């Protein structure tokens, strides 16, 4: 499945693979290394050092997490990685023995609460 089919609004709440195929991993064996991303393109990108960069547009979110799964039918994630806000985007990069092509993920966003006026 290609990530290029999805627009910015279609990314949040979808579960899909980084590129093609499915990888399996033992529970809690995915994001062994986590770091800041300087990637500007939306979606998931694998760099030459094996890091996978995730970038999602969500200007009104109070927080966004990268939720990782080890099986297509899984209902419980094996890892939840908080993303960092950078302008209107949220970014993170991860690396691990089972992180790469075929990684199953989704974004989970929590919205901002509007202040009530009297």
How would you describe this structure in keywords?
about 120 residues, Immunoglobulin-like, mainly beta, about 0% helix, about 40% strand, 5-stranded antiparallel beta sheet, 4-stranded antiparallel beta sheet
Structure description:
The chain has 118 residues and is mostly beta strands. The chain has a single domain, classed as Sandwich (Immunoglobulin-like). The protein is 0% helix and 39% strand. The chain has no helices and nine strands. It has strands spanning 16-17, 33-35, 43-46, 52-57, 61-69, 79-82, 84-86, 89-95, 104-111. Strands 2, 3, 4, 7 and 8 form a five-stranded antiparallel beta sheet that branches. A four-stranded antiparallel beta sheet has the order 1-9-5-6, with no helix packed on it. β3 (43-46) and β4 (52-57) form a beta hairpin. The N and C termini lie far apart (49 Å).
Could you estimate the helical fraction of the residues in percent?
A: under 10%
Secondary structure category:
mainly beta
Sheet bearing the most strands, described?
5 strands, antiparallel
What is the CATH T-level topology?
Immunoglobulin-like
CATH-level-4 superfamily name = Immunoglobulins
Radius of gyration: 14 Å
Instruction: Count helical runs.
Output: 0
**How widely separated are the two ends?**
49 Å
Under the CATH scheme, the architecture is: Sandwich
Strand content: 35-45%
What is the chain-wise order of helices and strands?
EEEEEEEEE
Number of domains: 1
Task: Give the overall shape.
Answer: globular
Mean pLDDT score, rounded? 78
- The top level CATH class name: Mainly Beta
Low-confidence stretches: 1-27
Number of strands: 9
């Amino acid at each position: 499945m290609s990530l290029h089919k999805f627009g910015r609004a279609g990314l949040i709440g979808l579960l899909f693979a980084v590129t093609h195929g499915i990888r399996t991993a033992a529970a809690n064996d995915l994001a062994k290394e986590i770091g800041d991303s300087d990637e500007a393109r939306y979606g998931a990108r694998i760099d030459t050092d094996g890091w996978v960069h995730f970038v999602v547009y969500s200007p009104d979110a109070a927080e966004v997490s990268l939720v990782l799964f080890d099986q297509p039918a899984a209902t419980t994630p094996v890892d939840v990685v908080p993303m960092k806000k950078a302008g209107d985007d949220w970014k993170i990069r991860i690396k691990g023995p089972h992180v790469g092509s075929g990684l199953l993920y989704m974004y989970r966003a929590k919205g901002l609460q509007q202040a009530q006026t009297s």
